[in-house]
Each structure stands twice: as C-alpha cells, then as structure tokens.
Amino acid sequence: MTAATSTAFDAAPRPTFGEWLDRHSGRVMVLPAVVILLCFAIFPLIVSAYLALSRFALAPGGFTLRFIGLSNFRKLLTGSQQYHFLGTFGALGPLQWLLLAVAAAALLFLLARYLLSGRATIMGTIGRLTSVAVAFGLAAVVVLTTAAGGVPGTLVTTLLYVFAGVLVQFLLGLGLALLCAQQIRGRNIFRVLFFVPLMVTPVGIAYTFRMLADMQKGPFAPLMRAFGISEWSWATEAWSARLMVLVGDTWQWTPFMFIVLLAAIENQPRDQVEAARLDGASGFQVFRDITWPAIAPTAATIVLIRLIEAFKIIDLPNVLTGGGPGLATESMTLHSFIAWRTQDLGGSAAVGYMLLFVSTVVCVSFFNFVVRPARRFEA
Amino acid sequence: MSDGRPLARKLFEPAALDRQAPVAKAATYGLLLLWSLVVLVPLYWVLITSFKLPGDVTNGPFYLPFVDFTPSLSAWNFMLLENNTLQPYVNSAVVALASTIIAVLVGSLAAYALVRIRFQVKLAAVAIFLILLVATIVAVVTFGVAWPVAIAVAIALFLIALLTLTRRTKLALGNSDVEFWIISNRIMPPIVAVLPIYVMFQQLRLLDTQVALISTYTAVNLPIVVWLTRDFFAGIPLDLEESAEIDGASKFRVFFTIALPLVRSGLVATFLLVLILAWNEYLLALFLSNAEAQTMPVLVSAQNTTRGPQWWNMSVLIVVMIAPVVVIASLLQKHIARGLLVGAVKG
After folding, report:
1. What are the angstrom distances between the C-alpha of A377 and each of A120, A303, A373, B340?
2. In terms of pTM, does the model score above 0.95?
3. Distance from CA of B146 to the nearest CA of A (A)
C-alpha cells in the first residue's frame, strides 16, 4: 500500500524503504504468520468445503469431481453412513425418556435464566440457542445409541474420549498437584517423574499399552491367570477396548493438567492460606475458599486447551485397536482417515467438517460459559 | 516427640501448622508412590523388552534382566545397524527442529506486533481476498484453468482492488480480532485441512519431502506460539523499548535486541513445547510422507507387520524416540510449567 497517496504530499521527499517499513511495521510483522495460516489453514478449509460438497471418482488419466450439494452430509446424518457416524439407535425405554427430559429441562432452565436476567442481547441469544440446540442434539444421540439395541457411532465415541477423558485427566491431575504441593521431601523428584508421559509419542504409548495388556505375555499375565480370565481379551469387546484407549490417553495427558495446576497452586496467596490455618480452617475449607478460587481461571483454560486437542485424537485408537472391534473405538478423525483410504474423498471431507462444527461449537461454548465467568470471578 | 499427647492424637494431628499429621503424610507418600508406579511400569517394560530376545517375549513374561532372562543387544543391533532407522530419525530431528525454529520466530514476531503496535486491517480487503480465493479455487477445480495462471490473475486483481476500492471503506479489524483469528486456527482439526494440503504438495512435486512437513508443522504450531508469547511480551515493562525508540531504533531492531532477550525463559518453554508436539506428530506425517521423508512416529506405527508386532524391535524404536525429549524436558521442566501457566492465566 505504498504509492497511492500522491498529490497532496508531492513536495515532501519520498519515504525511503526503511522509513516505509518502520511505519507499517505492525502489519509487516504479522504478515508472515498470516500468509502461512492462509496457505495451510484457510485455503485448505475452502478446498475441503468444496470436496465435502462433491463426489470424487478416479477416472482414466486423473480424477473427476462432481458437485452434489449436501448429499455427503445427508448420507452421514440420515443415509447409508448413519450407522457409522451417529450409530444405530436403540429402543427408547423409560430411562432414556427420563434422561432426555432431564437434559432438555436443564438446558431450557439455563436459557430461561439468561433471557430473564435482563442482560440478554440478540447476539447472545443466538449464540446460546445454537449451543443449547447442539448440546441437546449430542445428548440425544448419546442416549439413543447407548440404549438397549443401539450401537454408538464415531461421533459418540469421540465425545466419550473428549468428555470422559478430559474429566478424568483433570481430576487426577488436580489430585496429584494438591498432593505434590504439600511440604514433603522428594517433591521435585515426583514432579519430574510425573511429567515424563507427556513427552512419549502417542503411537509409542499405544504399542506399550498393547504389550502391557497382553493377556498371555504381558507383565500382568500371572495375575490374569490367577483370576482365570487369561482367555478373555479386552480387544474383542467394545467397552473394554474403549476403556483401553481412555487409559492410554489418560496416562499421557494427566501430566499436562498436573504441571500447570501445580504451578497455579504454588502461585496462590500464601499469607491467606497461613491466616486461615491459624484460624483453624480445615484442609478442605482452605481448598474450597482460597485455593480453588485462585486456580479456577487456570483450570478452566487448560480444560479448554485439552478439549480442543482431544477432539483430534487418532493415533491411539488407530494403533491400539485399529478402530475395532467393529467401529467401537473409531474416533471421527480416524473415520475420516479410513474414508480417505477407500477413495471416498467427499465423505472424508464431510466427516472432517462435522468434526470441525462439533468441536468449534463445544469449544466456543465452553469458552463463553465457563472460561470467561471463571476469569471474571477472579477479577 | 515427648509432648505427652496420646498416641492417637499424635498420629492424626500435625505437630506444627505447616506440617502434615503422620497419617496424612503416609497417605500422601502412598498415593504419590502409587502414581509413580503407574508412570514407571510402562516405561520399564518398554526398556527391558528392548533387551529381550524373541524367545524371552513369546515364552511368557520375564521381569528382571540377569535374573529371569539374559539381556541381549540383538534387537538394538538389528534396528540400528541392519534396519534403516537412522534416516527417519534424522528426518524427525530436522523436521521438528526446523519447523519449531520457524514457528517460534514468525509467531513471536506476530505476537509482539499484536501486543505493542496498533494497526488496522481493512475489512473490505479481507472480504475481497476471500472472494478471490474462492473464485480461484472454483476456476481451477471446475473449469480446469491452470493454477499458476489463476493465481497470477487473482493476485493482480487483489492488488488493483487494494489500491482503489478498499481505500474508500472505513470498517477495519483491530489487533485483538487478528489475534483471535490466529489463535482460533488451532481449533481446526488437521484432518479437515490435510487433504487439500496433500493435493497442493502433489501439484508442487514436494510430496514426501522434508520441506512439505516443515511448512505444515510450522502452520499447525504457529497459533500456540502466538498464544503463549503474547503474554510474555505483554508482561515486560514498556520503558526500555520506548527509550530505544526515542534513540531512533526501528521496531524490528527493538524486537530483536530488546524484547526477545527479555522473554528468554518464556521462549525456551514455548520452543520445547512446540518441539515435543512436532517430534511426536503423527497424522500429518502419515499423509505427507511415505519413504524419503518418513518420520519416527510413522515408522513406529508401521511396525505392525503381518507376523504381528515384533515387540523387541518396536521397543528399541520407542526407547530411542523418547530418550532425547525426556532428558531435555526433565532438565527444563520448571520452565515449561511456568510458560504454560502464564499462557493459561491470561490466555
């Protein structure tokens, strides 16, 4: 944007390159990052959108792309791939109706509280309506596919990895951080040791846990024999296979929660803790009234970071179980990858876009309704 | 401990306010040791398996080297000398280091500008850019226009629009909008972007090269660098930079000679975190490399042969892969924790 402002300043000497650079330094400094992201994020995103709306076929001497509108998405949500993506729906029993009613009531209550608070705005209402609709949709799919006769698809499996995994990792990380924050000898050793699993490549973790869980030759084999279950295999049953993936993921990511929460706990106001102790407060009271408020913003943010990353899981299920038995442990990224391998490029891109949609709504909702209030709470 | 309290009270009540009662202390140690076992057993098992002969693995579990089996270097010999492990190892190291250096440099430069220099990007320019981008893609994919031609035309049109149309508009994006956009790119699952990136490198004849991996890794890790380093820059006092500017130093000079050295420890944390992510990355390498540029995670996952996984060989690969990062990260663990904390508090 150099030479256009001419006439009025014709008398002044033209700025040298160095001066020009300095005047526009803000934009120039950001430019490389923006160009990289445009090439490797925005451009591929648009091409992917195009792929998701077309049918890809190999043809002599290359390939053809035919625009077919939303039919890739229709196939996933209501058509021939519904069993794969959403899952097979089971029968609606009284328990399922109850769960759906509870979910609907809770979401409507939150929505009504916002609308009646007197601070409702148009954008805020639209955002909350979207969040509530997506949340109820996901809850309904989870309830229906886990009912009797139902089989969860890749969407439900991914949600399980994300929500159950992150919750367990957070609680374990918090517990370990609280233990390690005590005045005990050797805490630095524990601190370094607990940090290690975060560094191990997920592919390596998958193989390691396959070795450990080997019923005949693994280290726990004598134990299995003692219980008489050495003929049983965790890999042949859906829930034990899913549990195995969760165990591997938890082993790797608990350290992340642990080190950040430990650093946050050590940053809490020392004098307040000591004063409370002198007044006879119990450990639990100190945690509830001092430690938790001090670490809540950090806790909310690292949970958000984990949510973002957890939606992308592929390496563990791919190596640990190959997505099986059936498609019990298949995550959405793995689903998309398998579709790509079978030359179904349109279907692959459509699954990718569904993942993008779900993870964006979940993460943005979490940011707006959990992280932001937690930060305001502190301030 | 001769303060005359009954034994039960001695066990359950702390002797001083900042101490734990003996029972609580024992419980703390017990739980910490339990988790230490959870961490160590898998690592120990991988390590000893790498020294086992095939027979030691298949004939049931053996636990202690020299006691119930004789350690052997045969798997190490096979993987490191006979099998081509060195090439993927070098690939991994080159790709991880190069992409991390570029990402940290480009990312911290952007983060510094976003924190310190006010600037605006015209909304109209962004809109025109996106429209032209979509038009180019449609032209290439549906109408078969050669891509170099399409890109040249699009760039020319964009420059013309920039110099004429966008000057008349007022709406603009500020620093925080640009920053939010950069960081939010991390939410995008890589699987959505990887297909077009694959085709792009195929067209450029760069598939299965280190260049392809380095540039893609740089892009996926850039948001993390910006997100972490912006808080480091926001945390340093303004005076030094201002006085340097009064003395006539350019913004670039201030950045490299004053701002960067001040956030050294934060940069170390960011560098390590991104390095670990790049070193362990799997999905993108799976798509973009197959023989020449293959990285370690892909090599490890490819060990699942038709005869079933060869645990002893695989364990060697896992050990050589995690050893360097574990050593580096253990030494710098405190830096990483502090770096993540700063990012997570302000985020």
Report:
1. 20, 17, 6, 21
2. no
3. 15
